[in-house]
Specification:
By secondary structure, this protein is α+β, with helices and mostly antiparallel strands. It has helices at residues 52-67, 99-106, 111-130, 196-212, 222-231, 237-240, 248-257, 269-280, 291-299, and strands spanning 10-11, 14-22, 26-33, 37-44, 76-81, 87-92, 97-98, 133-134, 143-146, 151-154, 161-162. A 6-stranded antiparallel beta sheet has the order 1-2-3-4-6-5, covered by helices on one side. The two termini are 37 Å apart.
Length: 303
């Protein structure tokens, strides 16, 4: 990681106030703009600026984000290269925290809250799909969530692709998958170009995590997880949390979204969200010990 810190400097008219996050390719700053007010500025790391593919991917993220206009998507203001050669992406400042951090802090959430997050995320994804964009890296780290307003918003199109892109235009080598292994759809593991069903799978994985605090595969290593994704069915909600009771229809909805075969999943992310919202309202059956307490904690709180 580079130690470069641009705090206090001005990039393309944005005064960088503080460094608030970083990844392998870029650093994120809270910035102030004379017209737009507080913004988020994503700056490509110095070591990446000479990497043509890294620059292309960074600018592609910006371009895809700018194409999707929806209240559930963090807005892209502008992007490009500043006069000093710094590649930047200026974004709307979104209040809240990463959904991943929220789940780590709270554990499983009420079914109604899970349904709200799934619905908001599905609507944002649907807007991306309508614009011809497949996200491909949907995960809690790419969703900003504000517990105060219970608003969830999608961000980071760094691994997205145009649904109409040809194989000759891809930035990922054949045989290498794009995404995060814990959330990636099985069909992506071969490196093939995936479609909307891959985003459904990732959304179903997030729904599973919201309800159980766990992931649908309990592998001990990336290699084991890779093997499980290709050969084994995911855990059911009840297998992941034997201390909680779930409606059978909810088990079925989530399992369908996690089906290894893309054609066996729901028809769209919105269809998954619709089914999920209906299912969480159903009473749990086949209860284990502590059913009443589990129901109260799982489906009766607003956390």
């Amino acid at each position: 990681m580079s130690s470069e810190d641009l705090t206090g400097s001005v990039v393309a008219g944005y005064h960088l106030l503080e460094r608030v996050g970083e990844g392998g390719t870029a650093v994120v700053y809270r910035a102030q703009h004379s017209e737009r007010g507080v913004c988020a500025m994503k700056i490509l790391r110095p070591k990446m600026r000479a990497d043509r593919t890294a620059v292309q991917r960074f600018l592609r993220e910006a371009a895809y984000g700018a194409r999707v206009e929806h209240p559930g998507v963090v807005r892209t203001f502008e992007y490009g290269e500043a006069p000093d050669g710094v590649q930047f992406l200026a974004l709307e400042w979104a209040e809240g925290e990463l959904l991943a951090k929220f789940i780590r802090r709270t554990g499983p959430v009420a079914g109604t809250l899970a349904a709200s997050v799934v619905r908001q995320t599905a609507d944002a994804l649907a807007a991306a799909h309508a614009a011809g964009i497949i996200h491909r890296d949907l995960k809690p780290e790419n969703i900003i969530y504000d517990p105060r307003t219970q608003r969830a918003r999608l961000l980071d199109f760094g691994h997205a692709r145009d649904a109409d892109i040809g194989p000759e235009e891809r930035l990922t080598r054949t045989g290498f998958f794009v995404g995060t292994l814990q959330y990636v759809a099985p069909e992506a593991l071969s490196g093939a170009l995936v479609g909307e069903p891959a985003d459904i799978y990732s959304l179903a994985t997030i729904a599973f995590l919201l309800l159980t605090g766990q992931l649908p595969y309990a592998a001990k290593s990336p290699r084991e997880l890779f093997h499980q994704l290709l050969t084994k069915p995911p855990l059911t909600l009840s297998e992941a949390r034997r201390d909680l009771a779930f409606p059978r229809v909810l088990e079925d909805v989530v399992a369908r979204g996690l089906h290894r075969e893309p054609t066996k999943r729901q028809a769209s992310v919105v269809a998954f969200a619709d089914d999920f919202a209906t299912a969480v309202r159903q009473p749990a059956a086949g209860a284990r010990t502590g059913l009443l307490g589990s129901l109260k904690g799982m489906f009766g709180t607003g956390r």
